[in-house]
Amino acid sequence: MRAWQKGRTGVPLVDAGMRELWRTGYMHNRVRMVTASFLIKNMLTDWRIGEAWFWDTLVDADEANNPASWQWVAGSGADAAPYFRVFNPMLQAEKFDPQQEYISRWVPEIGTTDYPGEPIVDMKASRDKALEAFSELKASRPTE
To answer: Is Flavoprotein among the key words of this record (predicted)?
Structure first.
């Protein structure tokens, strides 16, 4: 959890977003979704823990939007994203920060020995584990 909070996960876009949040109290919505997805689905952490951290650190935290956004990413809200949507932070970075300007601004040590060489979780294995857990949960729910 501390690695996520402080932007030391070894996932550049996640780390950039979390560092921006810590230093400025702000983070773009796209990066909010990516960092939330990483915490919930790759780190298998209850969305309420991330929501509480954002509540404490965002300058624009809102008592309706903050939990609703986290529930959307988790796939548990009233108008939620499908539970099987897991943002790939590497692909998101390629698409939305192709020159790595955002990442380089917040993670200047990227590519050096001062930056984690590998993500703190296996991205594919953690995604598969999350999808399996969500599928089992869905299958165990009563149909009516």
So the answer is: yes
Cβ–Cβ under 8 Å, residues 18 and 57: no
Residue type, 13: L
- Residue 23 above 90 pLDDT? yes
Q: With contact defined as beta carbons under 8 Å apart, do 10 and 110 qualify?
A: no
Instruction: Return the CA Rg of the chain.
Output: 15
Superfamily assignment of 1-140 in CATH?
DNA Cyclobutane Dipyrimidine Photolyase, subunit A, domain 3 (1.10.579.10)
Please give the structure tokens belonging to residue 102.
């955002």
One-letter amino acid at 14 equals V
Pick from 79, 22, 82: which is nearest to 53 by CA?
22
Q: How far apart are CA 134 and CA 106, in angstroms?
A: 33
Spatial separation of the C-alpha atoms in residues 69 and 65, rounded to whole Å: 6
